């Protein structure tokens, strides 16, 4: 009797980028890194709490600071002092780099079910919240103060100061305007204990357990102006994905966020966290222009460098084009400016998982509140969204393939 045919594997969308390779490199890099996480947390807390000095004062001490930087290594105080004096694009870039920013998911990871968490991202302003010395301050990605307020977070109000004066907490949040709530999507530090080098799985556990130790989730009051709430986080199984994608939430959704369970908190863009959107879970899948309308051609925001090159916000940046000196001078542009360009589909090629753009058409400058240029993964996601988007069915297929691989491994081990 012939053996029964093997079950067919679900269709799996072929990869169009090198995202998986970079994920593997990122995990290897974090395992070999031995940074002082406690010092990083202290420096970040100090700089976020510090009110920027006036431009004149910053200029007055500029030469002195440069001399000190040559003489000695940066201390925590040095980092905070330098950060407080940054202005314009430099300030936006520095503060933006303190937040762990997701790449856009252009390929479904091969082990979604076993290695990833998923949750619905609240719509709103991404920010870092620091509570210390009887005060709570939230800063947006461009470094500007969003709110300065009393809270029920540890040492977050004059009424609730406990432990040493240096004790502080740093939360990665999204402020949801409709219900005036800070939704916590990650935790960097709690009562002075740094979580930089802890896995995402552990950080999510702490968010839920530590928040319940305070009254930060209570309705607003005199000493607690805004409510804090943890977002529901799921294992990225078929059930978890469905709950995040279709389940009800107290906030407006803006896509899904995926976190690799083993990922440490890494400032800047990382492939170990991913954002994905479609029309069902987000109002904003394809970027709009200054009028809030979807343009006929893809738009891309790039940063102008000293040599005229136009680059993404990645580290290292990806070069998508350049401007000649005559155009730069005529348009009164300078290095660090963020510029918006239109991209024609026929000018785009995908080579070894990277976009290559043959022609960029200058459109103008984006909103001044914009913190940084688009990333390469966002450009690729937007390109795919207009042509052949990564759909929820592709994510389901990836999870089903992962499940079949695990079942096959279990059968082999039993044999």
Q: State the end-to-end CA separation.
A: 21 Å
- Write the CATH homologous superfamily of the domain at 101-276: DNA ligase/mRNA capping enzyme
CATH architecture of the domain at 101-276: 2-Layer Sandwich
Shape: globular
Instruction: Count helical runs.
Output: 12
Mean pLDDT: 84
Give the DSSP E fraction (strand runs of 2 or more residues).
25-35%
CATH class of the domain at 101-276: Alpha Beta
Query: Approximately how much helix is present in the residues?
Result: 25-40%
Largest sheet: 7 strands, mixed
Keywords: Cytoplasm, Nucleus, RNA-binding, Transport
Protein name: Snurportin-1
Biased composition (Low complexity): 40-51
Function: Functions as an U snRNP-specific nuclear import adapter. Involved in the trimethylguanosine (m3G)-cap-dependent nuclear import of U snRNPs. Binds specifically to the terminal m3G-cap U snRNAs.
Descriptive account of the structure:
- With 415 residues, this protein is an alpha+beta fold.
- Among the domains are: 101-276, D-amino Acid Aminotransferase, Chain A, domain 1; 298-387, Beta Barrel (OB fold (Dihydrolipoamide Acetyltransferase, E2P)).
- It has 12 helices and 19 strands.
- The strands form 4 sheets. Strands 3, 4, 5, 6, 7, 8 and 9 form a 7-stranded mixed sheet that branches.
- A hairpin with a 4-residue loop joins β4 and β5 (145-149).
- The longest helix is centred in the last third of the chain and has 23 residues, at 392-414.
- The chain is globular, with a radius of gyration of 23 Å.
- The protein starts with 18 loop residues before the first helix and ends with a helix.
């Amino acid at each position: 009797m012939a053996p029964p045919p093997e079950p067919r594997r679900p269709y799996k969308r072929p990869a169009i980028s090198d995202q998986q390779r970079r994920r593997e490199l990122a995990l290897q890099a974090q395992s070999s890194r031995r940074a002082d996480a406690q010092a990083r947390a202290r420096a970040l807390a100090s700089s976020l709490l510090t009110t920027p000095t006036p431009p004149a004062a910053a200029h007055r001490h500029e030469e002195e600071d440069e001399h000190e930087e040559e003489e000695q290594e940066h201390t925590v105080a040095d980092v905070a002092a330098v950060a407080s004096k940054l202005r314009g694009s430099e300030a936006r870039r520095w503060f933006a780099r303190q937040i762990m920013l997701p790449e856009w998911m252009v390929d479904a990871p091969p082990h979604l079910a076993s290695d990833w968490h998923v949750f619905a991202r609240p719509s709103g302003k991404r920010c870092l919240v620091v509570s210390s010395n009887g005060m709570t301050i939230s800063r947006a990605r461009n470094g500007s103060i969003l709110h300065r307020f009393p809270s029920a977070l540890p040492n977050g109000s004059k009424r609730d100061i406990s432990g040493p004066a240096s004790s502080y907490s740093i939360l990665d949040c999204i402020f949801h305007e409709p219900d005036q709530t800070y939704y916590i999507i990650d935790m960097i530090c709690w009562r002075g204990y740094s979580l930089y080098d802890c896995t995402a799985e552990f950080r999510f556990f702490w968010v839920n357990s530590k928040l319940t130790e305070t009254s930060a989730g209570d309705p607003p009051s005199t000493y607690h102006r805004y409510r804090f709430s943890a977002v529901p986080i799921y294992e990225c199984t078929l059930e978890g994905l469905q709950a995040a994608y279709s389940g009800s939430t107290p906030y407006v959704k803006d896509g899904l966020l995926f976190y690799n369970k083993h990922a440490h908190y890494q400032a800047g863009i990382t492939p170990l966290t991913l954002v994905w959107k479609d029309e069902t879970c987000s109002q904003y899948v394809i970027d709009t222009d200054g009028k809030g309308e979807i343009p006929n051609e893809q738009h891309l925001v790039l940063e102008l460098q000293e040599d005229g090159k136009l680059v993404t916000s990645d580290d290292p940046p990806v070069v998508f084009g350049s401007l000649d000196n005559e155009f730069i001078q005529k348009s009164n542009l300078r290095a660090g400016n963020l510029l918006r360009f239109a991209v024609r589909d026929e000018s785009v090629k995908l080579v070894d998982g990277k976009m290559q753009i043959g022609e960029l058409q200058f459109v103008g400058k984006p909103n001044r509140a914009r913190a940084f240029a688009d990333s390469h993964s966002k450009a690729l996601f937007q390109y795919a969204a207009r042509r052949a988007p990564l759909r929820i069915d592709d994510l389901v297929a990836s999870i089903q393939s992962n499940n079949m691989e695990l079942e096959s491994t279990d059968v082999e081990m039993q044999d």
